[in-house]
Amino acid sequence: MPVVAGALIRLQVEHLLGDHAPKPAWLWSSVVGATAADVDRWWQAFLRRFDLEHTFRLFKQTLGWTAPKIRPPAAADRWTWLIITAYTQLRLARPLAVDLRRPWERPADPGRPTPARVRRGFRHLRPNTSHPTRAPKPGRPGPGRPPGSRNRARATRHDVGKHPASVTSPTGAG
């Protein structure tokens, strides 16, 4: 097997929450001759990947990024932008949302609830925000004629026209 040059980084945590024994994490980079600043940037980027993984998990599970079966690439792009817009709204609504936590969840830091908790409290934001538009019209049709009542409007009648006698048949016998 060929020898591949690189840098091996051992990431050791001194203490974990609870009684867990910390195990080292090993990172590898193909850069030879890395400086201490490079190594610091790499292990911090490794820790930031958890934020990215949880963001994509939120996109998929909570916001339904992968739920619709979209075929055209343009429609998939629009759906992705819609999910990103919804996520942005959740991030912007953080200071306004009330922390509605489940019994097994720990309280969130003040003013910093997770996007999933903001989504839970999002419906309570509407009464406290301004309304730049009117209320929506109802989506269902009107009541119509009550059951059992008769229709009093007469239906329109059209005379059934007769064909003129001068029209001949296609066979010539008319």
Task: Explain what the structure shows.
This protein is 30% helix and 6% strand. It has 174 residues and is mainly alpha-helical. The protein has a two-stranded antiparallel ribbon. The radius of gyration is 33 Å and the shape is elongated. The termini are far apart.
Question: Approximately what portion of the residues adopt beta-strand conformation?
Answer: 5-15%
Total of helices: 3
Q: What is the SS-derived class?
A: mainly alpha
The side-by-side strand order for the widest beta sheet comes to: 1-2
Tell me the series of helices and strands, N- to C-terminal: EEHHH
Extract low-pLDDT stretches: none
- Total strand segments: 2
Largest sheet: 2 strands, antiparallel
Short description:
With 174 residues, the chain is mainly alpha-helical. It is 30% helix and 6% strand.
Name the descriptors.
mainly alpha; two-stranded antiparallel ribbon; 174 residues
List the helices and strands and how they pair.
Blueprint: E1 7-11, E2 25-29, H1 36-62, H2 73-92, H3 115-120
Antiparallel strand pairs: 1-2
